[in-house]
Amino acid sequence: MACFKLTLAYDGTEFHGWQRQPEQRTVQGELERAWLEITGETARVAGASRTDAGVHAGGQVASVESATQLSPDALLSGLNAKLPDDAAVRRVELAPDGFHATHDSRRKRYRYSFYNDHRRPVFTRRHAWHVPSRLDVAAMHRAAKGLIGKHDFASFQSVGSKRESTVRTIFDAEVQSRAGRGRGGDADHGADDETAALIDFEVEGDGFLYNMVRALAGTLVEIGRGHRDDKWIAEVIAARDRSVAGQTAPPHGLTLLWVAY
């Protein structure tokens, strides 16, 4: 049996998340269907991240063990011929025996995007949370830097998650406007290009709790709106209480950028 590593991208808008579910359209389900059609095998594909309904990916990683004689290039072409238009396999590689996309991952990086303009979005509406009130990007960036390090992130975990430990290490976190003014600048509300009104929160860590990035995004919005100062993030971490943090941001603003091994 060979082990294959697949790197995928998908628009999560029309998917009911990554994980296979009865009577639901999921990324894992579509990928396994495509695999069966081109290899004749009923494979079980493991994903690095169980992205929720509406969440996107630019660099999701999956692993599958297979007896197929097809080459990685042939699998790449075949899978993309069978997958729907809102999902694509970017790379297929032979992996070491025993490779598992979930258990072997060491780092992941996510981006959460906000559309910060009083006008209603058209082109970015499926990939960014519309926050019409002006956000203080510099304050959000300072707060994000307070996330870096090894902390107990229980305050940012949704109720119902079953994790043995809520301690995670964040290697990098930043908030940046796409308005051309660089990190810590203000979004240009007068721009005609919708992308100029986008603000990105990117965070990289060794792992994330259920809905953790979305809870972090919702907390940063409270700071960006001026409801709290940037030092508040340390209080929220110390509280280890989900009710202390901000809201869980909507799923459609979240994208899994990449996974490292």
Core attributes:
261 residues; Alpha-Beta Plaits; alpha+beta; single chain; ten-stranded mixed beta sheet; 10 strands; 5 helices
Radius of gyration: 19 Å
Q: What's the CATH class label of the largest domain?
A: Alpha Beta
CATH domain fold name of the largest domain: Alpha-Beta Plaits
Overall SS class: alpha+beta
Number of discrete helical segments: 5
The count of strands amounts to 10
**Overall residue-averaged pLDDT value:** 94
> End-to-end distance, in Å?
21 Å
CATH superfamily of the largest domain: Pseudouridine synthase I, catalytic domain, C-terminal subdomain
Per CATH, the architecture of the largest domain is 2-Layer Sandwich
**Number of individual domains:** 2
Summarize the amount of helix as a percent range. Answer: 10-25%
Strand content: 25-35%
Can you summarize the main beta sheet? 10 strands, mixed
* Shape estimate: globular
Task: List low-pLDDT spans.
Answer: 181-189
* Helix and strand element order: EHEEHEEEHEEEHHE
